[in-house]
Amino acid sequence: MDYEASKFLIRHALCTIGYMLDSASGLARLATCFRHARPEERWRFQGIVVKYAVEMAMERHSNYFVQLVLDHGDIQFRCGLVYKLMMQFASLSLHPHGNYLVQHCVRNRRTGSPQHDLLPIVLSACNRQSIRELQGLVQTPPATFVLHTLLQTGEAVTHSRELTQNLERKINDLLWRARRYRR
Predict the structure, then answer these.
(1) CB-count burial class (<10 Å; 0-12, 13-18, 19+) for 139
(2) Spatial contact of 64 and 101, defined as CB atoms under 8 Å apart
(3) By residue range, what is the domain housing residue 174?
C-alpha cells in the first residue's frame, strides 16, 4: 500500500490510538499504519508512546506496540523511552504484561539479539533497586524471567559485564542472607 492510499488511515489511527490498542485487530492496524507513516507522523506516534509508556507497557496488546515503536526509533528516542520505563523497573518486571517489554529492552524478542544500546540502562535500573525490591523480584515468577534474561544477556555483552557482575553479587548476597536466616 502506498502512502497516498494509507495517509487517511494513519491520521485516523493517530486520533483513535487509545481505542485501537484495546484489541489484537486494532493493534495490527495500528502497526501497519506506523510502518507506513512518514517521519512527522512517526514522531507523533512516538510522542504518544512516550507520554503513556508505562500504562501501555502494562496492557495486553499495547505493550507489543511499544516494542514495535521502540524497535523503529532512533538511538535518542530508544534510550529516552527506556529511561522513562526503567523508572518503574520493579513494577513492570512484576507485571504479567510489563515484564515482556522489560525483557525486550534487554534482548529483542523477535531476533533474539541483545539490545546493546539499551542493556546498560536496564542493568543500571535493576542495580538501583533496594534489597527489599530485589527480594520481591527474585521471588516472583514474571520478574525471575526478567532477571534471568538480564543476567544471561549481560554476561554475553562485553561492555555490560561490570554492571552484570554487580547485580549478580547483590542477588547472591540476598540469597546467602535468606539461607542464613532460615537456619
Answers:
(1) exposed
(2) no
(3) 88-182
Among residues 70, 34, 29, the alpha carbon closest in space to that of 50 is found at: 70
Q: Is there a domain that residue 18 lies in?
A: no
Where does the pLDDT of residue 183 fall: very low under 50, low under 70, confident under 90, or very high at 90 and above? low
pLDDT digits (tens, 9 = 90+) for 88-114: 999 999 999 999 999 999 999 889 999
pTM: 0.91
Task: Classify residue 163: in a domain, yes or no.
Answer: yes
Q: What is the pLDDT of residues 115-172, one digit of tens each?
A: 999 999 999 999 999 999 999 999 999 999 999 999 999 999 988 999 999 999 999 9
Exposed/middle/buried for 89, CB within 10 Å: 0-12, 13-18, 19+?
A: buried
Establish if 98 belongs to a structural domain: yes
Query: Residue 143 contacts by C-beta under 8 Å, 6 or more apart in sequence?
Result: 90, 93, 94, 99, 136, 137
Q: For residues 90 and 68, what is the distance between their CA atoms, to the nearest angstrom?
A: 22
Provide the domain count of the chain: 1
- Kindly state whether residue 42 falls inside one of the protein's structural domains: no
